[in-house]
Amino acid sequence: MSALTARDGLRRITVAQGETRVSDDVDVVLTTVLGSCVAACFYDPVARVGGINHYLLADGHASDEASMQRYGVYAMEVLINAMLAMGAGRHRLKARIFGGATMRQGFRDIGGANIAFARTFLRNERIALVGEDVGGTGARRVEFRPGVGVARCRVVTEALRAPPVVHRPPPPPAAVGDVEFF
Amino acid sequence: MTTFSSPREPSVSKTIMTVDDSPSMRMLLRVALTDLGYSVVEAEDGIHALETIEGANPDLLITDINMPRMDGFGLIEELRGQGCTSLPILVLTTESSDEKKQRARDAGATGWIVKPFHPEKLAAAIRRVLH
Question: pTM of the predicted model, to two decimals?
Fold first, then answer.
């Protein structure tokens, strides 16, 4: 994640693939760019806490741990737990989903599978889906203000052709999937 | 409580109870565990697990931590307090803080697995406590 303060005084934090971010700061904007990936934005209007994730695949059986972090079911659980830890109530969560575009014709419809996963997950978890901008063939930029629950989504296909180079450290070998016996 | 049988039907099928408030996570575990040859019973939180564990008579319990009504810590403390000391209990959670691990250890957990779980590591952990 990287953060910068723009002229509007809002602090923008970029959420990369596989990342999750939660905040109650009204001056924060969580932003991410999506192709076939899907981002879910959750908001609790009582606790005034919001969060966003960004997953690449609905589900699967990757052999490497870093890839598993990118799956929707984990991304959703990490997001929900992080919000509950900040005082959100599970039954109050309202969700918006974005992304899931078909970026390459002729390939497996990853975007469609990601959208279907999000809708099924929210229905199974009884989380209200109050808005979505999904599908199509264009990439999107999502800007979500977690402290006020406002999300904005616009198509940015042209910009995606020359994405800014962002150097990120590899995800920490962390803990993911590790087993510890007591 | 719902019971799922292993498609492999091993000669002596072990039963694993999974406790997680997320239907999606329960489904993921169900697929992984039945693929490994285990029978699976499910509960959606600590209270549900306490209500059904006697009938399920599992050989292993795998529980999440963050759940409504009764969390994983409460479940482990309650089971150990009731004298259920021989049942291995693995915590499966997105949490990884030392403080919470210590709390689980103090409550009587057998082990701690960080989500997302790696199927092979999960299988190895189960074999270690069951066989």
Answer: 0.63
